[in-house]
Amino acid sequence: MLHFARWQIVLIVLTVVVGILAVLPNLLPRSVLADMPGWLPKQQIVLGLDLQGGAYLLYQVDKQDYIDKRLRAVTAEVRTALRAEPRIGYTGLGVVDGAVQVRIRDATQFAEARERLSGLTNPLNQSLFGGASVDEFGLTEGSNETLRLSFTEDGLNQRIRSIVDQSIEVVRRRIDELGTTEPSIQREGEDRILVEAPGGDPEQLKSLVGTTAQLTFHMVDTSISGEEAMRTRPPAGTMVLTTSEDDEFEPARPYVVDENPLLSGEDLVDAQPGFDQQTNEPLVTFRLTTSGARRFGEVTSRNVGTPFAIVLDDEIISAPVIREPITGGSGQISGSFSVQAANDLSILLRAGALPAGLTLVEERTVGPGLGADSIAAGETAAIVAAVLVAVSMILVYGLFGVFANIALVTNIILLMGLLSLLGATLTLPGIAGIVLTMGMAVDANVLIYERIREEGKAGRTPILAIDTGFARAFNTILDANVTTLIAAVILFQLGSGPIRGFAVTLALGILTTVFTAFLFTRLLVALWVRRKRPTAIPV
Amino acid sequence: MKLISLPSDTSIPFMRWRVPAVATSLVLCIASIALFLTFGMNYGIDFRGGSVVELRFEEPRDIGELRSEIGSLNFGDVQIVEFGQPTDVMIRVAEQPGGEEAQQRVVILLREMFGEVAQFRRVEVVGPRVSGELARAGAIAVVAALFAIMAYIWLRFEWHFAVGAVLTTLHDVILTIGLYSATQIDFNLTSIAAVLTIVGYSLNDTVVVYDRVRENLRRYKRMSMPELLNLSINQMLSRTLMTSITTVLALIALFIFGGEVIRSFTFAMIWGVVVGTFSSIFIAAPLLITLNLRSGRTGGGDAAADAVAEEPAAS
Fold first, then answer.
1. Which residues pair with A192 in a beta bridge?
2. Are A185 and A168 in contact (CB under 8 A)?
3. Which neighbouring-strand residues pair with A151?
């Protein structure tokens, strides 16, 4: 056991050197790192949000919101389909039990109606290569000449999947616009999105990510006042929307608007914050696509003198009166914004709307001050722990205690080096894992030394005792560490947040511990034995 | 340089105390379960939903005053505790009825109330949808870890050891739950990590003892079980003590200097190391007698075989 071939020594030393090189970038400021030659490792340990401050936001895609929206859209499609020439008389069109339902008045037209509605089942392509195609909707016939369009399970699932992907894209664009450094946006499970962003203002981030930002332009119906429509019933094909409640000076005012939007977010090419040249108030300017501009031009020239409503997520932000046809394809939204609000709105419009609402289901934010305090506390704890462990090892094992301490330091360096190379995230529980590793790392050495002592007592020569001690301790150390490693791996697999951070350092700590115990410490002791030829058992 | 000697050549008759020791453990386990069933645990927002906000005021604030201010917001069950420095407080608000949005309202209202005079150092909001899942995932993690470890030990040792190790670990987990229940320390996600680490540590300790038992079983084929266990534990005693002491020292450093956030976590771990050390001696070993480890392997056992077995295997 105590014999090492030259190449083995070289490999062990090389590993330790690589470990040291991998740790070094963490000690250097970023400016120095940038100037270093390319072949040197530059990866630093990534600090978790709990150590550098930031936000961890878990959103869930609002499935019901999407279903409602989609059913409303399909209802409109059904209406259009049945009204097409030759018209088919129908009644009771609406959403019933999560499906669009309609009754055909004239039984002779039923077959034709079914034919038309079957065109609305909307086959979704599952893959690029065609393959099996799934219908989003199934068409069923009920009694009494009714037809129902309801979601198929596969279709809905596939839709939700693509909605999550789409939402991730939109959220990414929004956060990129904000200029936050290194945000991480990823899918969690079936229908969740996890946003992790270091630093920054968590409140602003929340308001940006959580907004659906569905922008629509609607004509205002002036034949009836908003208040009256609220009391009675809005005319068919219209709905009542109110102005934003955020405005302190003006209470929310109801308007009757066309149900079908004139323009929507998709017709926008760009949006920028700006200032009104006369009043100097913040506003948002936008540009429309060519087709959007044409439609907008036509409508505005027909409706000079009537107001239209600019609606964001079912709230009217502004309802200007059309003074002259707007044909240039650009316009302004003013709505007594603050500078920040105008800025945020333009980001939202540029990044596009979320396909469905997002609900914030879990939030953890840490201020930068607390993060810094936590690092300081963790460092102090680690240093004190290291000193306590080191002193007790020397007190008990003397010179071999020194070897154990050199191994401990090497162990921690290797652990930090691994964390750096892997780009793993160090969290506060992670620091706890390192401290625990320190406590347990000596276990391997203790097992070895105690074995050596026993073998010595059994009457072996010192060198043989050392050799057998290492050999005999091998199995025990392996069994003990593998069980802990299993626990750590399961923690990592099943855990989230703080548990993961802890599991990573614990698992890596076990690996480095086994390495240092079996190779590094053994090498140290072997070199010492070769040089000193001890005549007494040293522990 | 060497100033302290660990006890060596001890022959403490541990197994003589195994009945009172196991009895004490049983009583403690039952007490833990009873505590858990009657008082339950102080589940944190991770498992119960709700919000935690940590504030640092510009000047020290009177808790009573704060309580009445926050009381005016009608959040129902609100805990306010001083946290570290006198300017720091932690406000814990129970889950609000009304789904995810209702939880967000808590933070918005608190920000309106204190945004000007305090720094929001930490905000955590866990909605009702997530909290149930976190609890389930945590429980699954503990159970899965136990099973995986049992499988490993089964492969490496024999089933007696696997069952013994898992029962010992279960014992430690139950006592840890008892600690959380008795002290009413916040039980959250990090506590699950603590429990699992205790599982890891306790097993580590148990496996080390079992390893020696297995070795001695091969070596001393005629020795009675209690005698053999005593021998094994005594042989490992200095190692067990040394490792436990250094680990506890490291954990104490973490407890004192690691900051408020992980204090309850470290506290549980210190307890776990103490319990784990105790159980690897007084529970794990006697269990092997109870599980009748030796009965199936009494064969052979003539003096010559013993002598041969006592020769060290060449390594």
1. A60, A188
2. yes
3. A137
Distance CA A128, CA B281 (A): 63
Residues of B in contact with A393 (CB under 8 A): 246
B256 in contact with chain A, both atoms CB, cutoff 8 A: yes
H helical segments located in A132-201:
153-178
CA distance A354 to chain B (A): 18
What are the contacts of A387-395 at 24+ separation with CB within 8 A? Answer: A388/B246, A388/B249, A388/B250, A388/B252, A388/B253, A389/A438, A389/A439, A389/A442, A389/B246, A389/B249, A389/B250, A392/B242, A392/B245, A392/B246, A392/B249, A393/A442, A393/A445, A393/B246, A394/B1, A395/B2, A395/B3, A395/B4
CB A51 within 8 A of CB A368: no
Place of tokens 């005012």: A253
Helix (H) or strand (E) holding A285: strand A282-288
- Which of B279, B104, B135, B313 shows the shortest CA–CA distance to B203? B279
> Under a CB-based contact definition with an 8 Å cutoff, are residues B232 and B183 in contact?
no
**SS3 at position A427:** coil
* In contact, A516 and A411? CB cutoff 8 Å: yes
SS3 A396: helix
- For B124, the closest of A363, A442, A446 (CB atoms) is A363
Q: Which residues of B262-279 are buried (b: 16+ CB within 10 A; e: fewer)?
A: bebbbbbbbbbbebbbbb
DSSP-derived letter for residue B262 is G
In terms of phi and psi (left: phi > 0; alpha: psi -120 to 50; beta: otherwise), the region of A48 is beta
pLDDT tens track, chain B, 315 positions = 577 777 777 888 988 888 999 999 999 999 999 999 999 999 889 888 999 999 999 989 888 989 999 999 889 889 898 887 889 999 999 999 988 888 888 988 998 899 888 988 999 999 988 888 888 888 888 888 888 888 888 888 888 999 999 899 999 999 999 999 999 988 888 888 888 788 888 888 898 999 999 999 999 988 899 999 999 999 999 999 999 999 999 999 999 998 887 888 899 999 999 999 999 999 999 999 888 877 544 444 444 444 444 444 444
Whole-prediction pTM value?
0.79
Residue that is written with structure tokens 């034949």 in the block: A223
Q: Which of A443, A461, A472 is the best mutation test for B, with the most CBs of B within 10 A?
A: A443
Q: Are A173 and A166 in contact (CB under 8 A)?
A: no
Short-list A56, A1, A54, A29, CA closest to A371: A54
Contact present, A11 and A401 (Cβ < 8 Å): no
Instruction: State how beta strands A46-47 and A425-426 pair.
Output: parallel
Looking up tokens 């009573």 gives B64
Cross-chain Cβ contact A435/B254 below 8 Å: yes
- Buried b / exposed e along A144-153 (16+ C-beta atoms within 10 A): ebbbbbbbbe
Instruction: For residue B274, give the nearest of B301, B295, B247 by alpha carbon.
Output: B247
d(CA A389, CA A327): 78
B89 contacts in chain A (CB < 8 Å): none
